[in-house]
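Fill-in record for DoxX family protein.
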Amino acid sequence: MILLLFLTITFLQSGLDKITDWKGNIGWLKGHFAKTLFKNSVPLLLGIILVPEVFTGIISLFGIYGILSSGNTSFAFLGALVGCATLLMLLMGQRVAKDYDGARTIVIYLMPSIFLLFLLQN
């Protein structure tokens, strides 16, 4: 439950930040990716990453409900799986930008997500 709450908070907050400060995020990311192949695609890529982030947060919340209401872990597993995929996309972006400290931070988020997948496997 704690790991699902972790995913819910992490991804919903990140998605909400992107939605409420779209221009600020675009501005920062354009600088971050200025010397990469992503330099002309920042708004599109931000929109693309927003979708799985919000989906992960919502589905993780459903996972909490599913476990509490019926013991069903299907949504929890899906949340962890999509969360891992989303974090891998973010990791790729950090590596492309040669932001190795940022990539290391993503790995810190990835470890509990992978552990949650392990706990939920059948």
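KEY FINDING: The CA atoms of residues 96 and 108 lie 18 Å apart.
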